[in-house]
Amino acid sequence: MKSLPSYYSKDLLEAGCDEAGRGCLAGPVFAAAVILPHNFMHPGLNDSKQLSEKERLILRPYIEMNAIAWAVASVSEEEIDRINILNASIKAMHLAVSKLAVVPELLLIDGNRFKPYQGISHQCFIEGDSRFASIAAASVLAKTYRDDYMNEMHIIYPQYRWNKNKGYGTAEHRKMILSLGLSPMHRKSFHLKEAQQQIPFNTNL
Fold this sequence. Notes:
Layout: E1 14-20, E2 29-35, H1 53-66, E3 69-75, H2 77-83, H3 85-98, E4 106-110, E5 121-125, H4 133-156, H5 162-165, H6 171-180, H7 193-196
Parallel strand pairs: 1-4, 4-5
Antiparallel strand pairs: 1-2, 2-3
Helix pairs in contact: 1-4, 2-3
């Protein structure tokens, strides 16, 4: 497998940014920011959605050990409901950038929407996580840290099988919501209009 380009601009210190959990029905949205050295190479690094869980977990420590700086942040399901998922995803990326030990000169953003952060230039890329190593690295960190969090929440709410679906709207997850109602971790603004009247908030969870 060919390695992804390690930078967009050879003259600037870049941080790749990506989020995980944007389309989930439950749990926070996570984001990561990663600054990689220009000579970074790993043929297995790609968009986290194209990798197996085992591959992501192998890549995570490699990224963390070889990055110039990296950080992960999250925005809660309550705030997602309050400010909407797009704003929450952007806020999570802002928070991740703010936690970097080194201040980047350029942000490479996966997707087509972003809000300027602290005067740092940014460039958006559709499917950026399959185009640049720093964005792919951010996608791996965001995904694995979110998965870890949802595995922990599965211990508290095992009936929703978050250890398997990680909060995404699988048929099984939707069926459990209709059967059990919503947990406190569910995003109340994320359910299909035709199902909303059928899904009560379960205060016993």
